[in-house]
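Batch job 17 of 40 flagged for manual review because the log was empty.
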Amino acid sequence: MKRRKKASRAPRNSLALALLLMATLTGILVAILILWPSGESAKTAATGERRASTSLPDSITTAPVVGGERNEGKTSTGSRSIVERGGAIALIVDDAGNDLSSLEQFLRFPGEMSIAVLPQLPYSRQCAVKAHEAGKEVLLHLPLEPLGSENPGPGAVLVSFDRNRIRDVLDMDFSTVPFAQGVNNHMGSLATQDRAVMDTLLSYLKEKNKYFIDSRTVSSTLGREYAERYAVRWAERNFFLDNSAEKEDILRVLNDGVAYARLHGRAILIGHVQHRALLNVLLEQYDDLVASGVRFVTASEFLRLKGEGGK
């Protein structure tokens, strides 16, 4: 009896291999479908690194939070943090001279501060003396004629005055504000655009070795032009802190001023003695600002730093 030949195992093994290969390929495809991002997600994944690199470049850093507001600014030193460049802030408080009580509150401020005193008022001299005795720098807050009909007050220089009369007014104004190291203007949106007035004023300040801080009550002021012509030390206001007397608004502008000082190295911030909310904000923020590297300086020190740094 003949033996039956065993069937070949080759076809059966080939089928098993084919099934195993198909299962493997199916598993790979399922994994790809599960893990591969689609639509906007895929787009975000492809561009995420570029977005991260452009949303906060090396030259942009975030300042410390001051009073709940956050400021950002560029530095001129690459990736160096602006916390390391606290900046110098010259605080000038205008409109002293009408009474003593409002000024005395501001003299509590522990940092450097310059007090700008209006001339020929009942308390002009006393305010200047009080500020000086408290270690604050004194300026003459010189009334200059504004656009419109608003009265700039006693001791004002008007565009109708000739050169001699302007000089006489300046002599009288300085005599009622002892210890004044310089001048900043009260109003003056018309007078600071008048060449005769500014020529007389800046030549007078040069003779008396006084500096000039332009409050910039109008963008077309000639303050810089004539200060440079007569080589008078000068600077200009960067921010008015209290155009609004609301505490939240003052805080917002203070933060802007701090950010500006960190960016540019220094800033002049001007406020007004009649605004108690301004004083409260300054007192509340002082310790945090100093701890973050901010330096409060007098107007004279600001001008010295400006001279060292240019512009």
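Reviewer: the log was empty due to a logging misconfiguration, but the result itself is present. DSSP finds ten helices and eleven strands in the chain. Unflagging and moving on to job 18.
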